[in-house]
Protein 1
Amino acid sequence: MKIYAVANQKGGVSKTTTVQCIGAGLAHYGYKVLLIDLDPQSNLTSICHAVSDAQDKNTVTMLEILAKENKINDGIQHLDLYDIIPSSMFLASIDSRITDQMARPYRLQNALKELKGEYDYILIDTPPALGTLTNNALVAADEVIIPAQADILSLQGVSQLYETIESAKEHANPNLKITGIVLTRFQGRANLTKELVTLFNGAASQLKTVVFNTRIREAIAVKEAQAALSDIFTADPKSNASADYNALIKEIFDVDVLQKVSAE
Ligand SMILES: Nc1ncnc2c1ncn2[C@@H]1O[C@H](COP(=O)(O)OP(=O)(O)OP(=O)(O)O)[C@@H](O)[C@H]1O
Ligand SMILES: [Mg+2]
């Protein structure tokens, strides 16, 4: 069982999309996958069409699990492709629900221990903020994938995130590894972008990680698949978005999802 957090405190850089696309790809390939929505915005919960507590107030979400009111197994929803634990908008008030400050960052790590061996991969979506929720993800994860847009503000964000990652390593999770930085919503023709790619490569080597060769292009198929409550490999396997996420999955996990999907 390998646990990946997808994190960047900057908003709108494709964290949720990346969790869903990688999760869908690995599930199509045949792996058992659990997605965890740790963002109060609950975007992953919505695009995966999971039941939310807004739809049914008895739904167990990450809030009750982190607050230790429910066991992690109570929150798991089985979807066609993968399993998911939904978020709740009330997750924003997590700090008031865990009064023991020292215990706060460890709640997800402890909850996941109960799932030992049940999944091949667990992917955690995080909010656009550095706080208790992102900390829980960084403490629980084996590795962290950082999606970033190729602009100067995202570059600054990556170094702030690095400090948080270092702190998680120092205090709680010494073996945490940065898998790499994936440039998303990429529009490679702009001249400025080329210079930025060079800057990102420099930043990555300082963080002792890499910028993935694969760049995820801006592509309408991503939004179309999400609007259709589908995943990119099912909705549009021939799209640029499928090709890009397939290449990213190959780079990280060394498996070819599209080959598998087209053989079916
Ligand atoms: N490669 C892409 N091509 C086109 N649109 C994309 C792409 N990736 C993401 N988007 C769109 O950009 C928006 C932001 O993406 P997403 O929600 O995945 O980012 P996020 O980092 O999770 O945002 P937040 O920080 O708010 O959680 C969404 O509307 C999504 O559909
Ligand atoms: Mg998101």
Protein 2
Amino acid sequence: MSFVSFENVSLAYAPGGANAIENVTLSIREGEFVAVVGPSGCGKSTLMKLVSGLKPPSEGYVFVDGREVGGPLKIIGMAFQAANLLPWRTTLDNVMLPLEIVEPFRSNLKKEKAKYTADAEALLAKVGLAGYGDKFPWELSGGMQQRASICRALIHQPRLLMLDEPFGALDAFTREELWCMLRDLWQQQPFTVVLVTHDLREAVFLADTVYVMSKRPGRILVRKEIDLPRPRPLDVTYTDAFAGYVHELREHIGRIRES
Ligand SMILES: Nc1ncnc2c1ncn2[C@@H]1O[C@H](COP(=O)(O)OP(=O)(O)O)[C@@H](O)[C@H]1O
Ligand SMILES: [Mg+2]
């Protein structure tokens, strides 16, 4: 039983225009960690818009949790390359923002304020931001802002977390720290992840399944299961098995770029 599925999905931004993605079929089970890789402009963000109901497909069907997607879904949390924290709110108030919007949290917010605040503080602590709740975004490093942004995406306990190149703007060391943060969050609390990334090592380290997309119009070229045992320590990235996966994906991407 799949949790997210695409059946022959195409999307053209202009009616009758060229497809941004074409004939995409895929199936994601609940709890799966999926990474989507492909060259810039191949339709990765478009795929995210289709899952989250921000765009309807031009052709085909998108299902989430057994229902055809017909508009924005509240079981989804999202984070992007830019942390996009509101500069006039503290880190804690940024993390709690979805609770002011998404039901049933919105209706219970007054009554449950103390509990929700404690939950948000606990989540910040889990990602290494204990004690930073009252800081403003500009008082945090880029990596800390991205940690907070992922807390905001998870505070309403979404069943599906959508991440669009969330670590793309960070340095290599910070990026690896955030891989481990995401791995631990996902290991502790079951949710489904769709991670869009340029970084093949990131995809192999984190994902159960990696999809490689072609150049525009984006199609799924390869679906690769990553059979590295879990939990995966960062050291796994130095093993031959890991390098083998990265090389294999790299070759697929290389072929796309030459074609
Ligand atoms: N809102 C839009 N209107 C028209 N074209 C768009 C829009 N968003 C994206 N595109 C086009 O669709 C293609 C896929 O874009 P996108 O999904 O953002 O790619 P990626 O995230 O893989 O870089 C690109 O050619 C892009 O120019
Ligand atoms: Mg994109």
